[in-house]
Amino acid sequence: MKCPFCSSFDTQVIDSRVSEEGDTIRRRRRCVNCDRRFTTYERAELVMPAVVKRNGTRVEFDAAKLRGSLNLSLRKRPVSTEDVDAAVARIEESLLASGLREVSSGHVGELVIAELKKLDQVAYVRFASVYKSFEDIGEFVKAIDEIQVPRKP
Ligand SMILES: [Zn+2]
User: Fold this and answer.
1) Could you tell me the distance, in angstroms and rounded to a whole number, from the CA of residue 3 to the centre of ligand 1?
2) Which sign, positive or negative, has the C-alpha torsion 138, 143, 146, 149?
3) How far apart are CA 99 and CA 18, in angstroms?
């Protein structure tokens, strides 16, 4: 780390502490050349991975588009906006936490399916049927099987 005052590369860390939230490290540095002090902050760089579509093209992750497809599947279903927001946030967090530079659209689809499965079974089947259509009929049949409510005798 170059000294901001004299541009010397000879600097020492004299103190290091983690922020209360634990997401930043603050370092006090001293320049060996001019003896001036300065502070640096270090934080993890969190970047949304690019989404690689089936045809191989890359697009930016689009939370609004994601919300749109969730809402479409949840049309006329008794699920609150807060719950949809929370689901979108969980998907975003999961993608951020992956640390990957790019993910397949299939992976994003699986995350959506997992969230919808928790939110609403009808929306889950709607999304899964459109998303997985013609790609893997077996998966879709399995999805339908999984939600069949056992009948009372
Ligand atoms: Zn200096």
Assistant:
1) 5
2) negative
3) 21
pTM metric for this prediction: 0.60
Q: What is the DSSP string of 70-128?
A: HHHHTTTSS--HHHHHHHHHHHHHHHHHH--SEEEHHHHHHHHHHHHHHH-HHHHHHHH
Question: Where are the chain's structural domains?
Answer: 11-43, 50-147
What is the rounded CA–CA span in Å between residue 20 and residue 1? 24
Q: Using the structure block, give the residue that is written with the tokens 């001293």.
A: 30
DSSP 143: H
CA 17 to ligand 1 centroid distance, Å:
22
Which has more pLDDT, 128 or 41? 41
Distance CA 62, CA 34 (A): 48
Which of 3-12, 43-52, 101-110, 139-148 is least confident?
139-148
Reported confidence tier of residue 134, pLDDT bands at 50, 70, 90: very low
- CA–centroid distance, 26 to ligand 1, in Å, is 19
Report percent pLDDT > 70 for the chain. Answer: 85
Dist. CA 145–CA 137, nearest whole Å: 12
